[in-house]
Amino acid sequence: MNLESGWVPVALSSSIEPGTSAGAVVEGSEVVVWRDNSGKTHVWEDRCPHRGMRLSFGFVRGDHIACLYHGWQYDTAGQCRHIPAHPDLDVPATIRVPTYRAEEKHGIIWATSAADAAMPELADASGSTCLRSLNVDSPLQDVQAALDRRGFTKLGENAGTCTINSTLLFIGLQVANAQRTVLHMVVPAAANAAMLKQLSRWAEDFRFALESPELAAAEVA
Ligand code: FES
């Protein structure tokens, strides 16, 4: 599922602090994920309308994000509000960044441009402990097949759960491109440090088995 057709996970909530931004890639499209100082998240096209600099390299100032290159500032609707080289200019409304809808749920930031997309629902979401985002250099179908072998239960197109070491893990699946998949992993309950350490080790092994299947098989043998 892409940004036009449904909610896509783009980052763990814990990875975007207030006043910070980061870049993400969804099916080859670059987006900036940023959080304003009030705590609200925003997901936009990662391209400044001036000369194309990535906005994810920019600076968040209150409820604006400023481009690193020439300092143009954009409000939370993507509208350019200030051009430092022309401080008295009433900035034309046409200078704006294409934006997506953004929501946080189950410890993950999601984005879409679809008006009626449904968010994955969890039966038991008493908490959410962000584990990590895992970049795997493998196509989605291979990642999906490997998860299926571990009893993955799908909750919509881009997410699901599986039980690892007796702990339920919620996983949002982001297709970066044809060869790279990002797994955003959350424990939907309270989790202690030992559990998280075990799950992190499992995640590393999972990636290793997908990216280097011959080496992983040799280690098992
Ligand atoms: S490229 Fe962004 S302000 Fe110039």
CATH architecture of the largest domain: 3-layer Sandwich
In what range is the share of β-strand residues? 35-45%
Bound molecules: FE2/S2 (inorganic) cluster
What class would the helix/strand composition place it in? alpha+beta
Reported by name, the CATH topology of the largest domain is Rieske Iron-sulfur Protein
Q: What shape does the CA trace take?
A: elongated
The H/E string reads: EEEEEEEEEEEHEEEEHH
Helix coverage percent: 10-25%
Mean pLDDT across residues: 94
Assigned CATH class of the largest domain: Mainly Beta
Strand order of the largest sheet: 1-10-9-4-3-2
Taking the sheet with the most strands, its summary is: 6 strands, antiparallel
Count of individual domains: 2
Separate helix tally: 3
SS elements, strand count:
15
Distance between the termini: 37 Å
Low-pLDDT runs of 5+ residues are none
CATH superfamily of the largest domain: Rieske [2Fe-2S] iron-sulphur domain
Radius of gyration: 19 Å
3D structure, described in words:
This protein is α+β, with helices and mostly antiparallel strands and 221 residues long. The protein has two domains: 8-112, Rieske [2Fe-2S] iron-sulphur domain (Rieske Iron-sulfur Protein, 3-layer Sandwich), CATH 2.102.10.10; 129-220, Alpha-D-Glucose-1,6-Bisphosphate, Chain A, domain 4, CATH 3.30.530. The chain has helices spanning 140-148, 193-211, 213-220; strands spanning 8-12, 21-26, 29-35, 41-45, 59-61, 64-66, 73-74, 80-82, 99-105, 108-112, 129-136, 153-154, 159-164, 167-177, 180-187. It has a six-stranded antiparallel beta sheet with strand order 1-10-9-4-3-2, with no helix packed on it. It has a five-stranded antiparallel beta sheet with strand order 11-15-14-13-12, with helices on one face. The chain has a four-stranded antiparallel beta sheet with strand order 5-6-7-8, with no helix packed on it. Helix 2 packs across helix 3. The longest helix is centred in the C-terminal third of the chain and has 19 residues, at 193-211. The mean pLDDT is 94. FE2/S2 (inorganic) cluster is lined by residues 48, 50-51, 53, 67, 69-70, 72.
